[in-house]
Amino acid sequence: MDSKQALKVGITGGIGSGKSTVCRIFHLLGIPVYSADDRAKWLMEHDYVLQSKIREEFGQQAYTQEGGLNRKYLAEQVFSDPEKVKKINSLVHPAVGLDFENWAKEQQTPYVLKEAALLFETGSASQLDKLINVSSPLKVRVARVLMRDPHRSEAQINSIIDQQMPDEKKNELADFVIKNAENKLLIPQVLEIHQKLLNLA
Ligand code: ATP
Fold this sequence. Notes:
Catalyzes the phosphorylation of the 3'-hydroxyl group of dephosphocoenzyme A to form coenzyme A. Keywords: ATP-binding, Coenzyme A biosynthesis, Cytoplasm, Kinase, Nucleotide-binding, Transferase. This is Dephospho-CoA kinase. Belongs to the CoaE family. By secondary structure, this protein is α/β, with parallel strands linked by helices. The chain has 2 domains: 1-32 and 111-201, Rossmann fold, CATH 3.40.50; 42-106, no CATH class. Helices cover 54% and strands 12% of the residues. A 5-stranded parallel sheet has the order 2-3-1-4-5, sandwiched between helices. Helix 3 (48-58) runs antiparallel to helix 5. The radius of gyration is 18 Å and the shape is globular. Adenosine-5'-triphosphate binds next to helix 1 and helix 6.
């Protein structure tokens, strides 16, 4: 690792585990956070190389006349077709990986965070120096998402959970685990990891 570069730390966790909440605490400590999911959406509309690959693979209809992403069409294309899901991921993830590398080089802090719902599943964990998993009991996650996203049903949330790597597996693969259950305080856990990462960097 280049000593002048910030340590790259990935933070993940299943739907509703509390990744974004934990990232807000790191952000308050002055740590820059790269949101892979938000940035992927942005790149699909603003990265011309990626756009042309998506058009090539999914047709001109993938974009509207005004140049915006035709989310409805793409969602229909990938719906229940695992090969097409793989295809779109194989186009988007490398673009996000490159964008993250460029972003990380410009940061001036000892370490930076990359937040992604699918960090292990996409292989992007290998791009990172350390990994944090935010872990919450399934029941708590479902209840929190139902409160946060009233448009989602319990069945929809469970189907997303089924598509993600099990929490136990992610805990095994991670260097640090933040437990976000109802009886656990988040801030002391974040402070402890923050200190360890500063020491490492
Ligand atoms: P997603 O993968 O869906 O983006 P996430 O892992 O980023 O989810 P958050 O959005 O941070 O999860 O948390 C899910 C919901 O649970 C939010 O409404 C958040 O405010 C709430 N929440 C998270 N942690 C706690 C906590 N410790 N106590 C109470 N509410 C919490």
